[in-house]
Write a structure and sequence with these properties.
Length: 182
């Protein structure tokens, strides 16, 4: 029986969520599996991966073949590197303590990269929000200025209309006073 480490799709349409499983290669994608190794959620940024490191490493050492996507996930989490280091220990290239030191160094570097990415995403989101708010404020100011100009034009037109109407009302009063004076 050929065992594969692969993804089993769950979640709703357009919003996939995967279980990482060890399954017989003849079983259907979402069907029967031997053991669940973890979960993978590609909908978050960065993708959320919850993996049982020891179980995945155990299945790889037993000869299970990961699919391309699972291989990338296992590499990202360091399972493939740990398997590589254990192969070097078995061949006598270096000691187990040296392999453990190399793996721990790699993990700290990897965690630093992941932390840097999440920080960058957070700062990019904040700067985009600030830029959006600044653009919104600029548009609001332009609208207020346009509205004030419109009001000023309307007031000027009203004053002109009053000024034009005022001499007409004063002229008949002046004419009325003139005949009385004679």
């Amino acid at each position: 029986m050929a065992v594969k480490i692969r993804l089993a799709r769950h979640g709703k349409k357009g919003f996939a969520f995967y279980h990482i499983v060890a399954a017989d290669s003849r079983a259907p994608r979402d069907g029967k599996f031997i053991e669940k190794l973890g979960t993978y959620n590609p909908n978050t940024n960065p993708a959320t991966i919850d993996l049982s490191f020891e179980k995945a490493l155990d299945w790889l050492l037993k000869g299970a073949q990961p699919t391309d996507t699972c291989r990338a996930i296992l590499s990202y989490k360091g399972v493939m590197y740990k398997k590589h280091l254990l192969g070097g220990v078995a061949k006598g290239a270096f000691t187990e303590s040296e392999a453990e030191a190399r793996f721990n160094k790699w993990m700290t570097e990897k965690e630093g990269k992941i932390e840097a990415k999440t920080n960058k995403l957070a700062t990019d989101a904040k700067s985009a929000e600030k830029a959006r708010l600044a653009a919104e404020a600029k548009i609001k100011e332009e609208r207020i200025k346009a509205l004030e100009e419109k009001k000023a034009e309307a007031e000027a037109a009203a004053r002109e209309a009053e000024a034009a109407a005022a001499p007409e009302t004063e002229a008949p009063a002046a004419e009325a006073e003139t005949p009385a004076a004679e």
